[in-house]
Amino acid sequence: MLVLTAQDQAKLVQMDEVIEAVSIALAEYSSGRAIAPIRMSIPVDEHHGTALFMPSLVAGADSLGVKFVSVFPDNKRIGKKTIYGLMILSDMTTGEPLAILEASYLTVIRTGAASGLATKLLARENAKVLGVIGTGAQSKGMIEAVRCVRKIEEVRLYNRSLDKAHALAAELREEAGSEHLRIIVVEEADQAVQGSDIVLTATNSSEPVFSAGAISPGLHVNAIGSFRPQMQELPSALIAQASKVVVESIESALDETGDLLIPIAQGVFSAEHIHAELGEIVNGLQQGRDNEDEITVFKSVGLAVMDVVVAKLLYDRAMQVGIGQQVNL
Fold it and tell me: What is the C-alpha to C-alpha distance for residues 199 and 188, in angstroms, rounded to an integer?
C-alpha cells in the first residue's frame, strides 16, 4: 500500500488537473452514476470540533474510498492546524486498500478546485477583482483555483486577525513574483466585497460575515465555510436575491448548511429555488451565467466524490513517477 504525504501530493498535480478531476466527479454524481451518502458528522462539542466521515464510489473514474477529516477551530490557540485528515483509497475490483493519503492537503486542493470550476461556469468572463474573507488554509487553494480560470488583477484579503491576512498576502506576493497582481489587506469584511467581481468566504462563522449592502450586480460568490445547520457565512438577503444558487449536491446542502437552511427557515428562500447542482451545469443540463448583472452563488459543503476521484488521480500519478512510500500493514 502506498502512503502519500501532503508534500508528496504537492509534487504530483497542477490545479487545472484537479479542476478537471472535480468536474468529472460532479458530472458523474449529478448523472446518478456515483454513490456518495450524506457524510456522517460527529460534533465534538466539548472541544468545539467536528469529525467528518465521507465514503464514495465513482465507478466511471475507477475510484472508491473514504475520507476522515477533523475540523477543530480552537487548535490555532495551541499552535496546531485546524484541519486534519486521512483518505483511504481502495481498488474498485477487489476492495484492496491501495493508498493512504494525508487528507488536509487533499481537502484544500479539491475544495479550491470546486470553487475554480464554479467560477469558470458562473463568474463574469472579465472578472478581475477577487475578495477573500477568511485567510486560513482553505482560502489559498481557492485563490489558486480562481486564478486558474480568471485573469485576476487584484486580491483583497480580510481576516478577523489582520496578522493572518498580512501573512497570506506575503505568501501570495512571493508566489506571484513578477506577475501583475495587486494584493491588499482590508480592515473590514465589506471592503473585500464592495466592487469585487468574485468573493470567496472560508470561515467558521455562525453568522453572516459581510452585509447584503456590500453586494453589487454581477457578483459571484463561492462559500465553503458553513457545513453545519447552525453555521451561516452569507447574509440571507444574498441567497434571497441571487439569480442562481448552485450546490454540489442538493441533498447534502439541504441537510448540512445553514447558509441555505437559515434563509429557508426565515421564509426568504426555498429549496425549489436552488438553480442546479454544479455537475448539472457541467453536463449541459442547466445554464451557467446568463448575463453580466445576475448575482450567482456557489454554496459548497464538500462531496466525497471529489475526494475519491482526486485521490485516484494522485495515486495513479504517484505510481507513474515513483513518489510515496510503500508499506505493508
Answer: 14
The topology (CATH level 3) of 123-302 is Rossmann fold (3.40.50)
CB burial class (10 A; 0-12, 13-18, 19+) of residue 14? exposed
State the cell numbers at 220.
459571484
183 torsion bin: left (phi>0), alpha (psi -120 to 50), beta (else): beta
Active-site residue 76, yes or no?
no
- Considering 67, 244, 299, 312, which one is annotated as catalytic? 67
Phi, psi torsion values for 179, nearest 5 degrees:
-65, 150
Fold adopted by 2-106+305-326: ornithine cyclodeaminase, domain 1 (3.30.1780)
Q: What are the domain boundaries of the chain?
A: 2-106+305-326, 123-302
Helical residues (DSSP H) of 55-136, grouped into ranges: 103-122
In one letter, which amino acid is 20? E
Predicted confidence pLDDT, tens digits, the chain (329 residues): 999 999 999 999 999 999 999 999 999 999 999 999 988 989 999 999 999 999 999 999 999 999 999 989 899 889 998 889 999 999 999 999 999 999 989 999 999 999 999 999 999 999 999 999 999 889 999 999 999 999 999 999 999 999 999 999 999 999 887 778 999 999 999 999 999 999 999 998 999 999 999 999 999 999 998 888 899 999 999 999 999 999 999 999 999 899 999 999 999 999 999 999 999 999 999 999 999 999 999 999 999 999 999 999 999 999 999 999 999 98
